[in-house]
Amino acid sequence: MSGINQLKEKLYRELSDAVVEMDEERAAGIANIIVQNGIDAYEAIEKGLAEGMHRAGQLFEEEEYFIPELLVCSDAMYAGLDVLKPHLKVNEGEKSHKVVIGVVEGDTHDIGKNLVKIMLETSGFELIDLGRDIPPQMFVDTAREVGASIIALSTLMTTTMDGMEQVIKLLDEQNVRERFKVVVGGGPISQGFANKIKADGYAVNAAEAVKLARALTRGA
Amino acid sequence: MVVDQMTPIERISRYNRGEPVDRLPCVPIVGNTAARVIGVRVSQLRGNGELIARAHIEAYRLFGYDIIRVFTDLYTQAEAMGARVHYPLDQTAYLESPAINDASEIDRLQPADPYKDGNLPHHLEAMKIAIDEVGREVAVTGALTCPFTNASLLIGTENLVRLTLKNPEAVHRLCELSLETNLRYARAIIDAGCTPSLTDAMSSSTVISPKQFQEFSFPYLKRLIDYIHSRGKTVTMHICGKTSKVWDMMVAAGADCISIDNDADLLEAKHRVGGRVRLMGNVKPSEVMLQGTPCDVRKAVIECVRKAHDNPRGYIVASGCSLPTETPFANIHAMLDTVRELGFPVSVEALERGI
Question: What is the pTM of this model?
C-alpha cells in the first residue's frame, strides 16, 4: 500500500471513529486535514462519515446506543460534512434518489423522522425535509416538484395515522401514484397498517428504513 | 352476558387481600374516547373541569372498568410552566412549542401552582367532581407526567436527549423543576381525594438508555413515589415502548404496579419482577383496540390473561397505552366482556378453549 493510501485509510478510520465517539471537534478537525491533503471529499464522506453513522446505527440496533447517542453522533457527522461538502466535485451524488420526508399533520413528534433522515442522508439519499405537522397535499406537491423517488411519512400518534392514507389517496386521485414509493413509520404504525393503506413499505426503525429505501429504489 | 357482581373498589380491595372476586380487574386506558362517550369535541374539554368530569364518569359507567383516570393529554404540567399546547378542534392536543429552546433560559422557569396555572385547576376540579359522584364505588386517579418526560416538554425532546450527553447538569435542573411541579400537583390530587397516575413516556428504553434512566429518571421518580407513599397511596406507573431493562429500576423507585406497553412481554415481566410488583397491560392500543374487531380484542385479551393471570403480585387486564380517541366502543366492551366471561379464578381450561 502506498503512503497516500495508508494516510487516507487512517484518516477515514479516524473520521469514522470521531462520529461513533460523538466527537464533533475531532470530526471537523480530521475533515480539515483531509481537505488540506487534497484527499477526495466524496470518498471521505462515504468511507469516513457515513461509515461512522453506519456503525452508530448498528450500535443502536444492538441497544448499545440509544437516541441521545445517535443524535450526538449525527452532530459529529454533520460537523465533518460541513467541512467536506464545499470540496465535493459538482457531478458527484447527482444520481442520488430524492426522498421527501415529514411528520404528518396534527403531530409534532419529530425525533423518529429526524433519525430516519440522518440515516438516509448518510446512505446517499438526498432528503427534502418538510418538517412536522405537514398537510397531505404538501407531501404530494413537493414530491412532484422535486421528482422524488420516495415519500416517507412519520407519526407517533394514532390520531394522525389517517393523514398517511390521505397522501396515498391524493396520489391516486392525481394519477401519479406509480411515480413514488410511499413508506411509513412511527410508534403506532405496523406492517399491517402499511398494507391496509397500500403503502409500499414500513420500517420499524431508522436502520431498517435505510434497507427499505435501498430495496425500493434498486434498479430504479 | 356475564354482569359484574362488585363495584370496582370492592373488587380491587378484595383482590388485594387475596379474597375471591367476580373477575380480574380491567382497565382499558380510556383517554379522549371519553369525549366521544358524551358526544362533545375533544377541544371542548379544555378549561372545563365539569365537562372533563362528565366525560370520564360517563365513560366509566358505560364500560364498567375499574379505575377512572382524569386525562386529556400529557402536557398539562408543562403548559402550566410555559410550554405552548395546540388544541385541534377534535383531536388530542399536542405540543406546539416547548417553554424554552436553550439551556441558558432555564432560569426563567418556575414550578407550576396547580391551583392557578394553566389547565391544572380544571383537572383538579374534574377530579373533585368525579370523587364526589362515583368515588365510593371506583378509584379516581389524575394523570401526572413524570419529571424526565415533563422536562422534555419544557425544552423539546431532541434538545433534552442531546443535553443528557452534552450538559447533564441542565437536564438535572429541568428534572428538579419538573419534580417540584409534580410534587405540588400530586399533593393537590391527593388532597382532592384522588391518586396520581404516573406516566413517563420519554424514560422508555426506546428513547434513552437504561444508564440514562438511572441517572436522570430514577432519582426523581423515587422522590415522587416516596411522597405519594407517605400520603398512604399506591403508585401505578406507565412507561411506553421498550421497558424490560428498566423494570427493576421502576420497582426500586417504588412502583406498586407497572403498566407495560406492547413492546414488552407480560410473561417475561411476570418471571422477572412479578413477585415484587403488580402488572398491567398490554393489549395493542392501535393494531388491536383501534383497528381490530371485537374478535381480535377477545383473542388478545385471552393471550394477555394466559401470560399474566397468575402473576404473584396480581394482574390488571389493560391496553398497552392510552387508547386512541376513535377506538370503537365495541372493542372496549369486548375487552371487559372477555374478562367477565373468564371470571375468577381464571381456569386454564377456559383459556385453552378460548373460554
Answer: 0.91
